TrEMBL record, chain A:
Keywords: ATP-binding, Kinase, Membrane, Nucleotide-binding, Phosphoprotein, Transferase, Transmembrane, Transmembrane helix, Two-component regulatory system. This is histidine kinase. It catalyses: ATP + protein L-histidine = ADP + protein N-phospho-L-histidine. It holds the Pfam family HisKA_3. GO terms for molecular function: ATP binding; phosphorelay sensor kinase activity; protein dimerization activity. Residues 14-156 form the Putative sensor domain.
From TrEMBL, chain B:
The modification 4-aspartylphosphate is found at residue 52. The keyword Transcription regulation applies. This is DNA-binding response regulator. InterPro entries: CheY-like_superfamily, NreC/VraR/RcsB-like_REC, Sig_transdc_resp-reg_C-effctor, Sig_transdc_resp-reg_receiver, Tscrpt_reg_LuxR_C, WalR-like. Residues 2-122 form the Response regulatory domain. GO terms for molecular function: DNA binding.
Length: 384, 219
């Protein structure tokens, strides 16, 4: 009885909100007509794209509201309204999403006020269910009806607001084009960084080294002691050049990934991070087949960046890393015990990680409330 | 000689100073960026300036542009430009204002200390020092031109001449007599339709002007 009652209250709240929105729409339709007239009269052409944007927001709110009731997301697929006025007008009118939203608006004229059906059920429910289940201990019969009405409302809304498969596909293509462009940009930035590292580091060191050897050769007969000093300096520079080369190589593709796989490489990161780090590997990541090299590398760099940030800014003493093999991908979670409040816009490290991960169709989630902890979660899709 | 050095990498800067001082030259100014290079050259009017191509602030071709600008202000100011890689268009730009007192070498050459110092002195004296790789690129760029009619030996002579070497050096490098060098040079000039000329550096200039001009037919 208590459960049914709570459920019925929730259903009523849902229906009341839906009705409130519908009444709002009654007023909004008037604005819509004014815009349409204005557009036809050309003078108000700029109003149309703006109005479509407002419609999108309203439909978006409705999608969220419905998703809250059903627990299932309703996808959105709109074309971005941008460019010159002419283009914006064209997109606003041509976008299938516009028609979809209008169809829903008109339909909700009729079904949006379903709460009118639900409200009279309440006194009935109090009388019938109050006697039926309160006194006779049977399961209530009228209260679930209210829930049913809310279900009906949500089902209709879902059906009306779900974009066509074609529109979803178009949105997916758009998103892929954007991540692809990002991937290319990230790749180029990476190449530039490597070129810079080699140019300013290794190459310069080798030239300096060659210079020392040349000088030593000249000094060989005249000043053997000086030549010896120059050769010692040359040897130091060889060591430094090798160290730098190792760093450059590690920045391109960490050799330990090749040698030990992702779990081993992350454990090595943990051991060298300066924090007290635990590494938990689940889902058979270590025993099963290895993820693609790009996924491994992106995960590795993301974990490395997260640990570096935790040690540098977090102010905590320990961190937990979780690597998890999912059915359709790979998830890495890094959580520290620091003070939180990490600002993603500070520094480019996390941005680079985001790009790298997005390029592989994955996502990065950062949660860092003031007071901590900071949690960074990376999820990458891959086929096992 | 009084030398101005413009190089942003501390290691190389220090190495260059060491090298030039050990050879008895005076380093009058050392700067580490493009914008600093021009005033240093204008102020000190050195016998030769050694510049790195890529320097702050942009890490692009700041050194090259400073060299070109300095030569516009002080015509004939000897400049030796050092580069980590060969970029033929950089050489062309440098030679565009006349090849006298111009050098363009790969940084790698600095290690051959004697050759580097010799090149530096040549540039300071108004001569030319072009990296062998630059000359090779200039020569390949001019394919399908009269250069293809040259014999292998004549090409070698042309290559060395374009690098800025005099007859004696060419003879020594190729292990032939100076007389045969002169003969080969005569043939090269004939085949490239250049007016004959006997003075050493004037011939280098003629060859470089030829190589640096847009190719006939294809490029």
């Amino acid at each position: 009885m208590g459960k049914s009652l709570r459920q019925a209250v929730r259903a009523t709240v849902h229906l009341v909100l839906a009705a409130v929105m519908t009444f709002g729409l009654y007023i909004f339709i008037t604005v819509l007509i004014i815009t349409a007239v204005g557009t036809i009269a050309v003078a108000g052409a700029w109003l149309l794209p703006e109005t479509v944007l407002v419609i999108r927001r309203i439909a978006g709110a409705k999608r969220q509201m419905t998703a809250r009731w059903t627990g299932r997301e309703i996808p959105e697929a709109y074309q971005a309204i941008e460019g010159s006025l002419r283009e914006r007008l064209r997109i606003a009118v041509r976008d299938p999403g516009t028609l979809l939203d209008l169809r829903w608006m008109v339909a909700s004229y009729v079904y949006g006020a379903l709460v009118i059906l639900a409200l009279p059920l309440w006194p009935l429910a109090l009388v019938v269910d109050g006697a039926w289940s309160g006194v006779l201990r049977r399961s209530p019969v009228v209260l679930p009806l209210i829930t049913k009405i809310a279900d009906l409302e949500a089902r209709w809304s879902t059906a009306l607001l779900r974009p066509s498969p074609k529109a979803l596909l178009a949105a997916r293509v758009k998103a892929l084009a954007a991540t692809r462009a990002d991937a290319i940009a990230a790749h180029e930035a990476e190449l530039r960084r490597i070129e810079r590292d080699l140019h300013d580091g290794t190459q310069a060191r080798l030239v300096a080294l060659s210079m020392r050897i040349g000088l030593a050769q000249r000094a060989y007969d005249r000043d053997p002691e000086g030549a010896r000093t120059l050769m010692a300096e040359a040897q130091n520079q060889v060591q430094e050049a090798l160290t730098e080369l190792r760093q450059v190589v590690r920045g391109i593709h960490p050799p330990i990934l090749t040698d030990r796989g992702l779990a081993g490489a992350v454990r090595a990161l943990a051991a060298g991070s300066g924090l007290d780090v635990t590494v938990e590997v689940t889902g058979g990541l270590e025993e099963g087949p290895r993820p693609p090299a790009a996924v491994e590398a992106a995960t590795y760099f993301a974990v490395a960046e997260a640990l570096t940030n935790a040690a540098k800014y977090g102010g905590g003493r320990r961190a937990d890393v979780r690597l998890e093999r999912l059915r359709t991908g790979l998830r890495a979670v890094v959580q520290d015990d620091g003070k939180g409040g990490a600002d993603e816009n500070e520094g480019t490290g996390l941005l680079g990680i985001r790009r790298r991960v997005a390029a592989l169709d994955g996502g990065v989630m950062v949660s860092s409330p003031a007071g901590g902890p900071t949690v960074i979660e990376v999820q990458l899709p891959c086929v096992w | 000689m009084r030398v101005v050095i413009a190089e942003d990498n501390a290691l190389l800067r220090e190495g260059l100073v060491l090298l030039l001082r050990s050879a008895g030259h005076e380093v009058v100014a050392v700067v580490g960026s493009g914008p600093q290079a021009l005033p240093a050259m204008l102020e000190h009017r050195p016998d030769v300036a050694v510049l790195d191509v890529r320097m702050p602030p942009g890490f692009r071709d700041e050194g090259l542009r400073a060299a070109l600008e300095a030569r516009r202000n002080i015509p004939g100011l000897p400049v030796l430009v050092l580069s980590q890689y060969v970029e033929e268009s950089y050489a062309s730009e440098l030679l565009g204002g006349g090849a006298s007192g111009v050098g363009y070498l790969l940084k790698d050459r600095v290690g051959r200390v004697d050759e580097f110092l010799e090149a530096l002195e040549r540039v300071a004296a108004g001569g030319t020092a072009l990296d062998p790789e630059v000359v090779s690129e200039l020569l390949t760029r001019r394919r399908d031109t009269p250069i293809d009619t040259l014999t292998a030996r004549e090409r070698e002579v042309l290559q060395l001449m374009a690098e800025g070497h005099d007859n004696a050096t060419i003879a020594k490098t190729l292990v032939i007599t100076e007389r045969s060098v002169s003969k080969h040079i005569g043939n090269v000039f004939l085949k490239l339709h250049l007016p004959p000329s006997d003075s050493g550096h004037r011939r280098v200039l003629a060859v470089l002007a030829y190589l640096n001009s847009p190719g006939q037919g294809s490029s």
